[in-house]
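Record type: ASSEMBLY
Status: queued
Input:
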Amino acid sequence: MLKRSPNQKRASWRSPALRGRLYQLLAIGLIAAAVWFLAHNTLRNMALRGIQSGFDFLSDPAGFDIGESLFPFDSGQPYWQAFLIGLSNTLRVALLGIVLTTLLGTLLGVGRFSRNALVRGVCYAYVEVFRNIPVLLQLLMWYLLFAQGLPAASEAWTLGPLFLSKGGLSFPIPVWSGAGLVFDFPVKGEFAIEHGGSLTPEFLALLLGLTFYTAAFVAEVVRSGLQSVDRGQREAAVALGLSPRQSMRLVLLPQALRVIIPPLTNQFLNLTKNSSLAVAIGYPDVVSIANTALNQTGRAVECIAIVMAVYLCTSLATAALMHRYNRRAAIKER
Amino acid sequence: MPSESSPTTSTFQPIAPRPAPRQPGGLLRWLRVNLFGDWLTGLMTLILGCALLYGATLFFSWAVLRAVWQPNFEACRVDGAGACWGVIAEKYRLILFGRYPFETQWRPLLATSLLLALLVASCTRAFWHAWLALLWAVVLAVFFTLMHGNVLGLCLVETDRWGGLPLTLLLASLSMALAFPIALAVALGRRSSLPAIRTFCTLYVELIRGVPLISVLFMASFMFPLFMPEGFTLDVLIRVLLGITLFAAAYMAEVIRGGLQAMPQGQMEAAATLGLSWWQTQRLVVLPQALARVVPSLMNNFISTFKDTSLVTIVSLYELTGAMSLALNSDADWRPFMLEGTLFIALIYFVFCFALSRYSLWVEQQVNHGTPR
Amino acid sequence: MTPPIIQFDQLNKWYGDSFHVLRDIDLSVTPGERIVICGPSGSGKSTLIRCINRLEAHQQGHLWVDGVELTDDARVIDDVRKKVGMVFQQFNLFPHLTVLENLTLSPIWVGKLPKKEAEEKAMVQLERVRIAEQAGKYPLQLSGGQQQRVAIARALCLKPKIMLFDEPTSALDPEMIKEVLDVMTELAGEGITMLCVTHEMGFAKAVADRVIFMDQGQIVEQNNPHDFFNHPQHPRSQDFLSKILGH
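Status: finished
Output:
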């Protein structure tokens, strides 16, 4: 006769549920203790050094000028406006960079499958060279090229209505005037190019540096996405008489896109984060402005927190957008 | 339809395999097929070929033919002179070793060589044993002793004078070594069934991955001193090292977590039926397989970290990039030749990273031997 | 006597430098002939038919398809591919396109037909394989047997003179094999030249004009189905048949 064990819920030391709860309590306790320790020290140190805390400094006048911005700014305006301008500068270079790098990277990735050995070789060499040199170094090189290689404004290179010189790239922009929408053309003045819109050499160096660096990684993402498409798909396309270009465009790329989107999103985020290196070449993005503000007000925690918040929001927004796009583009199955 | 009843059977003779015939034409045929297969390919070859040749001749003329090799900045400034490689000859010690005192630069040289030897050794199969960790500890201790000094008759050299290549290598390898156990713990924590631990690990990883390294370095540089209790100062090198370590650990944790997720459920079930505890399962069954699978991605992490060390320039530690800027910016005679300096260290980075990525491919092949095709 | 529509002359192929996969193949196929090729795995059967539409390239010997010799010339290859339809073991339907779009892809982009006309012709083929009601679905929404029938319809949209089948039922669950074989049998009755690599001996007996047995890259034996299955001559054929028909 089998002995039945009593149906009690005894809290045993061996019960995994109890131990789990114990571990959690321990973990929470440790983390709470650590946070308290750090916070306590921080407050004491800040009191000792006379550093004030709080975000109230944001409404104080900034006291510095910003090299370039889409909106007018002078040193009398408050810090929060300066931060906003920094944000706009970051987004400006990030969005344009994302578009350009996708174009260039896709061309390079597809080029690895070209029938022309020279094209294949160039694409391979590009990826290896640009991937293995740090992005900061590449940005510095571009900046040096612009600073040393371009002529002075009085001898600017012209291409139609465009001017390229040490002052940057000048181009005609549409302006709202009395007669409606007209174009304001740049004109070579005595010391600088006047009128028209312009992109500073810092912006150009940052944009081109980020684009060319990230394009190498985008090319690899596109290439491995294309390689991951089942070999039979290519054979079926070829057996139906499609040319290599047609089969790439109609059969391989559409299917590869699904594999490419997640790592591609990652590269977009990397480009956005790498734009923070603008501080090294003097482009006033949000990190650069935060750095100036930090040095002026001493509010290290607040300024760094603002910077981190900005990038976190951008990361989350981009990830969410791509997630939605991925959902819509998914292959329908049973 | 009438079939062709060819009497194959009666005439069947088995044919022995023969080696393949050699391709006629050789190089010329390869050129024709790969570069001039059809008119569009041929056109692209011509355009691209001409552009490349033009660019290559320009570069060659600047970098080699018209270049100045002696450390003579007067000769470099002559109109029409090409690249000034003399700047390297003049400044290479400053670039490679930073602000380390000139006479004692044999110490960073020796320390760097030891560290390089250690890294190469870690990559070779013969050294993949448990005592490798001990070897790392020993070599790193020797490294610090040599660089810091203050013992055995070596004079003291403060950490803020360390710079150049030794600093780059130190930051990259030490941060990876420290980040690994942290990443392992966080990866396991993220898969834990205990919500508090899981949340904490997830928050850490997502927070760090969402922000640029520069902000983490700023945080390390400006905020860590605030976190310390009174009287406790944190060396700038330690601060930066902590920043890079925390940053690298978050990315490594994701890589390891990917490897853990790819583990088939059946492995855990088999281990459970054998009576292994959770810790034993992780140690004996899960981790050996998962880690072997993610070694190539970990190598990529190392290459990224190696490149990321260049950012510490921005928080005033003069590793390779910073040392070069410092060396050339502070000397008005040589300042115009920063492009050559930049190319020089770009070459150093390229050599290291390219070698690492080749090695990573080799490791991937080694690991894949065990997987069925 | 009608000239052969496919002619192999001392064809040899190697994979790499050392694997001699097709050895001195001589084969003639008359127009409208239906051939089943069988043999153990690794015997080169799939490689043989893949040479016909240049999915594989031979290194020695000659191959004529519909009077034209197959060489490296891209134009020749394109022309030949328009006359030869292929059905794969793994179906290889394009999962990102609907069934109808799968069929009209080649007529529109290669045949340069206007979209409406291509769709009408595609619907005719879909009705032929009795799957017209699935025209708007995506391939992964269909069963294996349905997908393979779509694949056959897709190949037929080219109006090929020759149809190649590379183990068309090997990837299907047993209950779906019959529906595909029925379609192939109907096709066989319409006069198109068919070369089929398959293990389905019932199909071979019912439909084939000639059965070719291959082993280790060579044609060992070829005969009409009745004589081949009942009186295999060569010990290798006898051995192979005993293995397949045994269970």
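Annotation: The interface with chain A takes residues 53, 55, 78, 81-82, 84-86, 88, 90, 92-96, 105-106, 109-110, 138, 140-141, 154-155, 158 of chain C (CB under 8 Å).
Annotation: The mean pLDDT of chain C is 91.
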